[in-house]
């Protein structure tokens, strides 16, 4: 039977799970897993904001890898293309525009980005969007050469003792773990290259940052859930989806100790 989930029920489920009134919350979500709602993703956004209350802040990653030639998405697009086709593709790749460039992080993230009052950080590849009381504090000063480290919204969310909600998705997409990659001793660094607008001109920009690697995040998340005290990760149902709720700070701290023990040097 096709169940329609309404805003009031979703709000109650989020509150029962432990979403904190007045708190900061970062969400990764699959709308398909949540199921049918009367007003699509807008219903879920309203439920999240209602559970957080008027003093709360909702944050989502709004990443945009399509303007980069160092992303897995780009490498897949050029696979099998000849030199001329690659050159044509590169010439038409649009520069990042925080006001216009769509997110590739799913319908919920894109809905938050487009909601009146939302603000978005200006990193050309790993931006975030936020709505609510602490949105400016979280979003402002996201340095363009810092994807997900100390000069990114992740570190501000850490400072605010934010919660993380995985709504119908697994730990393999848990952006929080990337913050730990910056906090391990001697993190591996690499070159990134993307299209931006500078002084009104479209141009390629190259910078160096920590090498991001989410290939083992599923295993990391399973250990975080298994090895931490009961209740660290709260599990329940929101709509038709399995939801996990936990402290961003605890997840990042756990990952900071887990990564050096489980990744070979230089990985």
Your description of this structure?
A hairpin with a 7-residue loop joins strand 5 and strand 6 (128-132). Helix 1 (7-17) crosses helix 3 (41-52) and helix 9 packs across helix 11 (248-262). The strands form three sheets. A seven-stranded mixed β-sheet has the order 5-6-4-2-7-11-10. Helix content is 36%, strand content 22%. The chain has 267 residues and is an alpha/beta fold. The protein is built from eleven helices and eleven strands. The chain has helices at residues 7-17, 31-34, 41-52, 72-77, 83-92, 107-114, 135-139, 153-159, 176-183, 217-227, 248-262; strands at 4-5, 24-29, 36-37, 57-61, 119-120, 128-132, 163-167, 189-198, 201-210, 234-238, 241-247. The model has no long low-confidence stretch (mean pLDDT 95). The radius of gyration is 19 Å and the shape is globular.
Q: What order do the helices and strands follow?
A: EHEHEHEHHHEEHHEHEEHEEH
What is the distance, rounded to the nearest whole angstrom, between the alpha carbons of the first and last residues? 47 Å
What low-confidence regions span 5 or more consecutive residues with pLDDT below 50? none
The order of strands across the largest sheet is 5-6-4-2-7-11-10
Shape: globular
The overall pLDDT average reads 95
Q: What structural class do helix, strand and pairing data support?
A: alpha/beta
Strand content: 15-25%
Number of helices: 11
**What is the number of beta strands?**
11
Radius of gyration: 19 Å
Helical content (DSSP H or I, runs of 4+): 25-40%
Largest sheet: 7 strands, mixed
């Amino acid at each position: 039977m096709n169940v329609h989930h309404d805003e009031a029920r979703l709000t109650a489920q989020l509150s029962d799970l432990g979403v904190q009134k007045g708190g900061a919350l970062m969400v990764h979500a699959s709308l398909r897993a949540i199921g049918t709602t009367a007003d699509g993703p807008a219903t879920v956004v309203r439920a999240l904001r209602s559970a957080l209350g008027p003093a709360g802040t909702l944050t989502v990653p709004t990443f945009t890898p399509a303007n980069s030639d160092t992303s897995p998405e780009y490498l897949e697009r050029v696979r099998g293309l000849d030199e001329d086709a690659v050159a044509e593709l590169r010439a038409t790749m649009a520069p990042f525009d925080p006001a216009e460039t769509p997110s590739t992080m799913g319908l919920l993230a894109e809905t938050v980005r487009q909601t009146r009052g939302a603000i978005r950080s200006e990193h050309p590849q790993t931006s975030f969007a936020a709505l609510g009381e602490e949105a400016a504090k979280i979003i402002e000063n996201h340095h363009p050469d810092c994807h997900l480290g100390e000069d990114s919204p992740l570190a501000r969310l850490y400072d605010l003792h934010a919660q993380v909600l995985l709504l119908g998705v697994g730990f393999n997409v848990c952006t929080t773990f990337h913050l730990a990659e910056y906090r391990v001793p001697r993190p591996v660094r690499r070159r990134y290259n993307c299209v931006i607008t500078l002084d009104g001109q479209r141009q390629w920009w190259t910078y160096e940052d920590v090498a991001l690697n989410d290939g083992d995040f599923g295993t990391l998340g399973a250990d975080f859930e298994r090895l931490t005290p009961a209740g660290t990760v709260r599990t329940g149902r929101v709509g038709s989806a399995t939801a996990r709720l936990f402290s961003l700070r605890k997840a990042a701290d756990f990952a900071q100790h887990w990564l050096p023990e489980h990744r070979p040097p230089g990985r």
